[in-house]
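Customer escalation, tier 2.

The customer says the design service returned an amino acid string that "doesn't look like it belongs to this structure." They asked us to rerun it and document both sides in this ticket. The original structure tokens are below, unchanged.
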């Protein structure tokens, strides 16, 4: 096993990481939504936002592992921060740097790794957005481009205030958060020639002028998040409006799936006593990801 060396600018790198004031903070949906999307898109069991501290790699967002950090001297990400290029290990068992690494011969039995370096505002490489699989695989050019684009979104979140991309009331993406991930969805759908559907749900009370309660909105947001695919991008784009961007889903299929969810949610909200006379209106439309009008349509929401 080859342990990762300190970066040439190690002290500046560590100082830049400390200035972000993010180490040892709780998980946040603004990062989890990205790792969740990465794991589902690339069909891997593990996706991480990993930050490389002095003696450890610490996971700000972690899907597929039940630990929050590992030692830096056995980390893959410690190697990845030495270059701006993606580090892709297609088969760890035939790579002299990693074949006898404890994370390879023991849990989580890493066989494939792909890490896109994350940069601090001043340019220092402080960690990665990484994918891990338990079997060897390859990452083609378009997939590498998609991973880099998701890493760029993580970098935006590292330097932004919490409210910039998230709706504080429902813990969903807000309009800006939707647009941040929309570029990635449009690229993926275009490159892989996948259908793309935009769905908009408007929640209202029939024969009532009073707004929906906080509890009702939070419940609806949670119910949608629980039922949607990890590849779907869900956002609150208005006081009573939820928007969903669905890659690899035709608009008629989306209408049928979401319509069934709406029936269930309306019944649950009434049964739980959050609100009576609830109505959720749904519209769906197919978008052409290769056409600039698709991005404009999202910006007009």
């Amino acid at each position: 096993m080859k342990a990762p060396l300190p970066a040439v600018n190690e002290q500046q790198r560590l100082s830049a990481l400390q200035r972000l004031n993010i180490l040892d903070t709780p998980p946040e949906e603004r990062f989890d939504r990205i790792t969740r999307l990465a794991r589902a898109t690339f069909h891997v069991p593990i996706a991480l936002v990993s930050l490389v501290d002095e003696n450890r790699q610490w996971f700000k967002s972690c899907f597929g592992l039940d630990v929050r950090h590992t030692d830096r001297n056995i980390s893959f990400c410690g190697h990845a921060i030495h270059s701006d290029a993606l580090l892709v290990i297609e088969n760890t068992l035939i790579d002299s740097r990693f074949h006898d690494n404890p994370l390879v011969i023991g849990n989580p039995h890493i066989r494939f790794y792909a890490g896109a370096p994350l940069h601090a505002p001043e340019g220092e490489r402080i960690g990665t957005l990484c994918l891990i699989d338990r079997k060897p695989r390859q990452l083609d050019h378009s997939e590498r481009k998609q991973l880099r684009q998701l890493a760029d979104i993580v970098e935006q979140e590292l330097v932004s205030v919490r409210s910039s991309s998230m709706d504080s009331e429902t813990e969903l993406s807000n309009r800006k958060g939707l647009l941040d991930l929309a570029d990635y969805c449009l690229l993926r759908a275009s490159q892989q020639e996948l259908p793309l559907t935009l769905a908009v749900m408007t929640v209202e009370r029939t024969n009532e002028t009073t707004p929906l309660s906080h509890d009702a909105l939070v419940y609806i947001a949670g119910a949608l998040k629980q039922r949607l695919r990890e590849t779907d991008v869900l956002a609150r784009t208005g006081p009573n409006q939820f928007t969903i961007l669905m890659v690899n889903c035709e608009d008629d299929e989306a209408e049928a799936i979401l319509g069934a969810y709406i029936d269930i949610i309306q019944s649950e909200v009434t049964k739980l006593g959050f609100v009576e006379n609830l109505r959720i209106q749904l519209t769906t439309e197919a978008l052409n990801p290769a056409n600039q009008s698709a991005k404009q349509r999202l910006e007009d929401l």
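Tier 2 assessment: The sequence is consistent with the input. The first strand starts at residue 46 and ends at 52. The chain has two domains: 10-160, 167-299. Sent an explanation to the customer and offered a walkthrough call.
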